[in-house]
Amino acid sequence: MKKLIILTVCLGAAIFAKAQQPEMAKAIVRYKFSHIRDTTQRDKPYTENMVLFLGETSSAYKSFDRKTQEALMRQQLAQQMAEQKASGGRMDFKLTSRKPVTRTELYQFPTINKFVRKDNLITPYLIEETMPVIKWKITADTATIGTLHCQKATGHFKGRDYTAWFSPDLPFRVGPWKLNGLPGLIVEAYDTNKEVEFKFDGIEQVKPVDPKAVAAQESAAPASGPTTVIKFSSDDDNKNPNLIALPTNAVKTTEKEFTKLQEAMRKDPQAFMAAMGGNNVGNVVVSGRPTGGAGQINSVSVNMTGKPDAINNPIELPEKK
């Protein structure tokens, strides 16, 4: 673990510099993502609701289900904390999570040819990847998806042949996941065998947030009471959910170094958490104790009602030689 601590300190010193100015999303696109991860159970694909935040020069692709799930777990935490606070004794929290969700977030900055992945191992990490380049063939086929006029394109990417429907009326050269590079928003996409599908589920214009309302809401919060002793490891530092920005508290690292950290966590989770300065249970981090008369935290347990899928068919396949 000494090597891990040294590695963590070195990475911590390399806080990711701002490569792109934060900008407000102009629109949010919803997708229903489906992936046959286990080819022995093709009738049971993995499904998840995803969102794509669209800005003038950037985009952010995230799990909507993750945000919903964490909001429900926070409600459970607040209720249990309120119930146990009066006792002044040791506190036990039991949180229920419906199923595993995607914790990775993907940021595209087409104007500067930059692609960044955000992952979490208690600390948020940023890994810069090569900007995906897909050689699309645009056809004359058209269709209406929702209310959007779309055009068909085909291309090969990460071991799969994709069909994409894009809307030339929406001037965003991005799409769900790592798909990009067409003269318009990618509205839907799927591979030849429909093992991976991104289905359009709606688009909405972002309404401006009143800064005064946000400030008033923050000032209305009680000054006393429990500190944030349990942090959800995917929490953003952005107060405005519609702001597209790389987190300022994230650490820049490489794929190789991040893989080392993942392996260290899998090998000895308790030692890894101790080295990172907290205890991790499920997808929450216990890093302190309550104040304001509340008792010491005794335990936190997360019950996952769903099981992780077996994966013998990853979304990115090796290229055939």
UniProtKB/TrEMBL annotation:
<feature type="region of interest" description="Disordered">
    <location>
        <begin position="296"/>
        <end position="321"/>
    </location>
</feature>
<keyword id="KW-0732">Signal</keyword>
<protein>
    <submittedName>
        <fullName>GLPGLI family protein</fullName>
    </submittedName>
</protein>
<dbReference type="Pfam" id="PF09697">
    <property type="entry name" value="Porph_ging"/>
</dbReference>
<feature type="signal peptide">
    <location>
        <begin position="1"/>
        <end position="19"/>
    </location>
</feature>
<dbReference type="InterPro" id="IPR005901">
    <property type="entry name" value="GLPGLI"/>
</dbReference>
